[in-house]
Amino acid sequence: MRVRKSIGTVYALTLVLTISLAWLTSTISKNEDAHQNITVFKEDRIDHLSNSNIVDVLLRIPLQETVGHVEWNNSRLTLELVVAANSGRPETWFNDVKKLINVSFAELNNVNRLLIRIVEKDTYGKRLLTAVDVRVTDEWLRDDLKSLDYANPVYDQTWRKRLRLSFTNTWENRFGPIQGYSVQTSHIQLNR
């Protein structure tokens, strides 16, 4: 009889232990679901530029060139695109300029002026090639911003004026006089 009682006790303990383990596993699983990983960097839409989010805004823009110095002051965003000396293509540089203009004036609500300097950098330092100055009061931002995607600001005089585009002697030494400059998709060509 003692053996029967012992076997009954073992069966009962085994049953209680099995049920307890199943319940414990279920509880742990529920707690793990409740404590999922929390996203540290949120992909929230930013529509108001500030010193605290300027890096986030610039990192979201898929630029081909490197951003150098950046300054945000009194609703004026100033930055430089740093390009390699004696390499790179102005088409690519101005595609980056177009992206910066679009974000500054179509996505952000507090940029009144955008100043972009394109500088070349080598072992001797930086040299200014060209500068762009766009203001929120420019009428073309409301009417013609989408057509900027198809424009060639270097070649098109209308867009040079709209962007207040200015070129330096360094640009002319590298690419020739601005009147004779044209960009083709396969290569850069000087027309003289």
Question: How would you describe what is shown here?
Answer:
With 192 residues, this protein is an alpha+beta fold. The protein has 2 domains: 1-34; 54-190, no CATH class. It contains 6 helices and 7 strands; from the N terminus they run H-H-E-E-H-E-E-H-H-E-H-E-E. The strands form 2 sheets. The protein has a 5-stranded mixed sheet. It is elongated. It starts with a helix and ends with a strand.
Topology:
Blueprint: H1 2-34, H2 54-60, E1 66-73, E2 76-84, H3 90-107, E3 113-122, E4 125-135, H4 139-143, H5 157-162, E5 166-167, H6 169-175, E6 181-183, E7 188-190
Parallel strand pairs: 2-3
Antiparallel strand pairs: 1-2, 3-4, 4-5, 6-7
State the order of secondary-structure elements, H for helix, E for strand. HHEEHEEHHEHEE
- How much of the sequence is in beta strands? 15-25%
Q: Can you count the helices? A: 6
Fraction of residues in H or I helices: 25-40%
Q: C-alpha Rg, in Å?
A: 31 Å
**Averaging pLDDT over every residue, what do you get?**
82
Instruction: Give me the secondary-structure category.
Output: alpha+beta
